[in-house]
Amino acid sequence: MKHIFIALTALIMTSSAYSQFQVSASTGYAVGSAGMKLGEITTVSETGANVENSYGSYGEGVNFQIRGTYFFNDTFGADVSLGYLHGSDQDVTVVNSTSQQVNAIARARAFGGSASLVYKFNNNVFGRIGGLFKVAGKTEAVVYNKAVFTDQEAEAQNLPSGSYSETNYKEDFHGHFPIGLVAALGYNYELSPNLSLFAEAEYYGISLKRKDSEISEFNTDIILPDGTVAAAGVFSIDNLPDGTNKKTTYVDNLSSSDTDTTKRLSQKVPYSSFGINFGITYKFKPSAAKE
């Protein structure tokens, strides 16, 4: 306890003698870390069907960040940041067969923030570690589904053989408030006393538990074998097909006797990533204790 008190006293004394505030802006690209199964890819051929898992993380993609950092002394500081993740497309459901083609992808469109402690090993090398949280955004699913009618189905609709339905829709998934870990190690290159460039390797460790989802766009057309649209807008966001719910709620418990199709069991989806960022920092003139 005595040692902790001495350390805190030293930190307060050095903080009163020196402080500096800086702001930075950066961008970078991250790849998925600790990817989990997101869906399946099914290919049907004459010899049979082949199914393979699709793994990934919704944390993969391009990010943009702004950060404010306050240094208490030459070594220790704290920062807060806000960022935006423009996630890469992740395969959720892919089906390739003569009777059906499905391409369902999902991607992150999310705003997040972090609060970290910063340590400068020297004038160039720095590290930071802290908490990561989501501010706003969604996981956006984009689905394309082409289903070829059987001859009986086509005949019942007075359509030629080979006609098909083509459905496109978007569904936005939202999650509960998550808290994760952020850690980074970087190198700072000084251009002038107030301006510098930096590069850093950054790790995000976070997952998101789904809360609800809502279909935002929906359209189904009937198309002839030659590509001509026989009937446009057969189904729409205001006229969804039977069994399709506009809104879905995700819960932890679901009874087998519950017939409410708007409820599904919740799941956690991965947002963890490892990336490289490049940015620029502006340092304000440090304040020092008066003699």
Q: What does the model show?
A:
This protein is mainly beta. Helix content is 8%, strand content 66%. Strand 6 and strand 7 form a beta hairpin. The N terminus is likely disordered.
Q: Can you give me a brief rundown of this structure?
A:
The chain has 291 residues and is mainly beta.
Residues in helix, %: under 10%
Radius of gyration: 26 Å
- Uncertain runs with pLDDT below 50, 5 residues or more? 1-17
Q: Which class of secondary structure composition applies to the elements?
A: mainly beta
Give a quick set of tags describing it.
291 residues, mainly beta, eight-stranded antiparallel barrel, 18 strands, elongated, disordered N terminus
Task: Give the helix/strand layout.
Blueprint: H1 2-17, E1 18-32, E2 36-45, E3 48-56, E4 61-71, E5 76-87, E6 90-96, E7 100-120, E8 125-148, H2 151-156, E9 164-175, E10 179-190, E11 195-205, E12 207-223, E13 229-236, E14 247-251, E15 263-265, E16 268-270, E17 273-283, E18 287-288
Parallel strand pairs: 2-6, 14-15
Antiparallel strand pairs: 1-4, 1-17, 1-18, 2-3, 4-5, 5-7, 6-7, 7-8, 8-9, 8-10, 9-12, 10-11, 11-17, 12-13, 12-14, 12-16
